[in-house]
UniProtKB/TrEMBL annotation:
Residue spans of biased composition, Low complexity class: 105-115, 124-135
Protein name, as recorded: SWIM-type domain-containing protein
InterPro entries for this protein: Znf_SWIM
Transmembrane segments: none
Boundaries of every SWIM-type domain copy: 55-95
Keyword entries, A-Z: Metal-binding, Zinc, Zinc-finger
Region (Disordered): 105-137
Molecular functions (GO terms): zinc ion binding
Species assigned in the record: Cellulomonas biazotea
Length: 713
């Protein structure tokens, strides 16, 4: 049962984004146009304020019927099979409150706006106002979501849908982004947004056309509950009598188990022999294990093993790029990954975050609003070069990128020239045309990690933005304290992820050139005096940006915003500048440092001319940094020294008890300074395995304390 007042309260939470999610922007415009000439009327028993199963509203010659879930289950007498403009028009009119004035005003208002007793009301003899005000709408919606149990969600989506929702969240590489305003919203990494404005599980609004919408509704509820400390139990596994595993599945599981055991032995053998005494046979075993891992669809482990094989190959040929300490760090991380896969298999679930994906997957979304923030050309040491364009999505509140890349051996592709060549999306002339403009993409494809596909089926509509409108849309960071927070090293993400941000510095130190690292440095300061050092390593692709930064006016013009890609290194913020957003209204709203000239006239750079004249090679990889061990606790430095020394010379020629005692003493010293994660080593464990485990724990603690282990992958 529902009342007119209940429905009005629910519809009042709908904003334009919610209406567009349930219908589309064109229907919303037509509905508002209809309301200029039509006057909807509540008909039926609801007009008298009675409790009814549904509220009926006449819109012209059509009648719209709203149930308890609001627009989600609304029906109209018009022939449209989907949400129509009459439903939207009736909902907007009801949300305006006019229906309450026309139908049972006193009763309706009392149910929506309960009156407070007057100071001299006998019901409040002390004449005091109620100290507890009415709950916020978002709080009420939050309480509703948190109150739904397994039975409620299973009744809504079925057992299969409830199971799918659990697996969908468990397999996701990142949790949904939650927002709280007039209503609650959950945005999944693939771009699907689910909004809750009231009305029970059926009232959850999904903004994309997805199969089995109930599954996404339940997944959104579970995500909200998990984020607030409530984890509902997973559904029971399907009965094996009804669904026996296939022969291929059984074979794969057995092969995976053998691979995990063989890989554990292989990694421990490398430490037992000593990373300074490796042989071609070990390289061949790593290559074979990598192929095996790819065959059983352990994609992440396959990449790690291939990287280890490359490390060993460099050491065997005595390459200048070989690094036995980096190899040892990667061995420890691979050993931890295999242990995590073992634990997941024993629990009956192997999350995609650990297993990995063969390639990135892209999901089609209906529309996507973007703001272009510039682009950057790049080249990697592995032989690829390309162009990356950066966008801010106001509706999804996240940074997105589009990249076009090629092997650098492939002729005819120039990352800098690509900036002014045709874009992949019809409607956008070039990637350069997106800088400082607002784009509306129709049917874009988006990956979970925020990458846009360049498929031609996506179309773009471009609208100009003035400087004030652009700045109002951007997520400006004024304090560096919360930019790129330090997180534990993850087995699913091998390195600390970089973050695209828009910085609003209060000042900047002069630009400087590091001749040793062949890198330009530009420190930006916030109000607290904290610094983020933007770096541009020398490359012919970066020559333009280096010249631009060298010629920047000092001090920095107040109000200038800087778009950069920022991460933490040794606990400090470093980044790569992409573009400037100047405060002047008479200048382009986005100044792309890698491509634009401030006044349209090229300015020669003495630094760039000297580097080109000297024939300095491009810097494709950052100069490797060693751990700043002076900033770390002495027992931690001692443990790393112990495990490196033991692993380099090998464990096989040393009594096992001696190694265990040395590790135990080092762990005891670390617990004494508060690092209780270093528990007593297993007295019966494999010595090489104990060394690798100690090193992995050391990597984690070093990272959190500000050092940066040389981990890749």
């Amino acid at each position: 049962m529902t009342t007119l007042a209940d429905l009005v309260a629910l519809l009042a939470r709908y904003d334009d984004d919610a209406w567009v999610a349930i219908a589309n922007r064109g229907l919303l415009r037509r509905a508002r146009k209809d309301l200029e000439t039509l006057h909807p009327v509540v008909v039926g028993p609801a007009a008298a304020g009675e409790d009814v199963d549904a509220v009926e509203v006449a819109v012209g010659d059509r009648v719209v019927r709203f149930g308890a879930t609001g627009p989600a289950d609304a029906a109209c007498t018009c022939p449209s099979p989907v949400t129509c403009q009459h439903v939207v028009a009736a909902g907007i009119w009801l949300a305006g409150g006019g229906a309450l004035d026309e139908a049972a005003p006193a009763a309706a208002r009392s149910s929506v706006e309960p009156s407070s007793p007057a100071p001299d009301d006998p019901g409040d003899p002390a004449g005091r106002a109620d100290p507890v005000g009415p709950a916020e709408p978002a709080d009420l919606l939050h309480d509703e979501l948190m109150a739904w149990d397994t039975a409620t969600l299973t009744a809504h989506a079925g057992l299969a849908g409830y199971r799918w929702a659990h697996h969908h969240l468990d397999d996701a590489e990142a949790p949904p982004v939650l927002t709280r305003g007039p209503y609650l919203a959950m945005t999944f990494p693939q771009g699907v947004t689910v909004r809750y404005l009231g009305g029970g599980p059926g009232g959850l609004v999904v903004d994309q056309r997805v199969p089995a919408v109930e599954r996404y509704q339940v997944a959104a509820v579970l995500a909200w509950q998990r984020a607030h400390g409530l984890v509902l139990p997973p559904p029971p596994a399907p009965r094996t009598a009804d669904r026996l595993p296939t022969e291929a599945a059984v074979s794969q599981q057995e092969s995976r188990a053998r691979l995990r055991a063989a890989t554990t032995t292989l990694l421990r053998d490398a430490v037992a022999v000593g990373v300074s005494h490796l042989s071609p046979a070990l390289h061949d075993r790593l290559v074979t294990a990598g192929v095996w891992a790819q065959g059983v669809e352990y994609h992440r482990l396959a990449r790690v093993l291939r990287r280890l094989a490359d490390h060993v190959d460099l050491l065997l040929v005595r390459s200048a790029h070989a690094d036995d300490v980096a190899l040892l760090d990667d061995l420890a991380r691979a050993h931890a990954l295999v242990g995590a896969l073992d634990a997941a298999a024993a629990a009956g679930s192997e999350p995609v975050g650990l297993v990995g994906r063969a390639r990135s997957t892209y999901d089609v979304t209906r529309t996507l609003d973007l703001v272009g923030l510039g682009g950057v050309p790049w080249r990697t040491g592995s032989g690829y070069h390309g162009l990356t364009s950066v966008f801010w999505s106001p509706s999804r509140a996240r940074m997105l990128t589009w990249t076009d890349a090629r092997p650098d051996t492939l002729g005819g592709f120039d990352p800098r020239a690509r900036w002014r060549q045709p874009s992949p999306w019809p409607g956008l002339p070039t990637p350069a045309a997106a800088a400082g403009a607002r784009l509306t993409l129709t049917h874009p494809q988006l990956s979970a990690d925020g990458r846009l596909s360049g498929v031609e089926s996506c179309t773009a509509a471009v609208a100009p933005l003035d400087a004030a409108s652009l700045r109002a849309l951007l997520p400006v960071a004024t304090s560096w304290q919360d930019v790129a927070p330090v997180r534990p090293l993850s087995l699913t993400h091998p390195a600390e992820p970089a973050t695209w941000v828009v910085l609003a510095p209060t000042g900047a130190a002069p630009v400087s050139w590091d001749a040793t690292a062949q890198t330009l440095h530009w420190p930006l300061l916030d109000a607290a005096g904290d610094a983020v050092v933007l770096e541009v390593p020398w490359s012919r692709l970066h020559a333009h940006a280096i010249g631009r930064l060298e010629g920047l006016a000092q001090p920095l013009v107040p109000g200038t915003l800087v778009v950069a890609r920022v991460r933490r290194r040794h606990g400090e913020l470093v980044g790569e500048p992409v573009s400037l957003v100047p405060p002047d209204a008479d200048r382009p709203s986005v100044d792309c440092l890698h491509f634009d000239e401030p006044d349209g006239t090229p300015r020669p750079s003495a630094l760039v001319r000297s580097l080109l004249a000297a024939g300095v090679d491009d810097t494709t990889d950052p100069v490797p940094d060693r751990h700043r061990r002076g900033a770390l606790p002495a027992p931690l430095v001692a443990l790393r020294s112990l495990v490196e020394r033991q692993a380099q010379r090998g464990c096989s020629g040393v009594p096992s008890d001696d190694v265990r005692r040395a590790l135990g003493a080092a762990h005891t010293a670390l617990r004494a300074v508060g690092l209780t994660v270093f528990v007593e080593p297993d007295p019966h464990g494999d010595v090489a395995g104990l060394v690798l485990r100690s090193l992995y724990l050391t990597q984690q603690v070093e990272h959190l304390l500000g050092a940066e282990p040389s981990i890749g992958g």
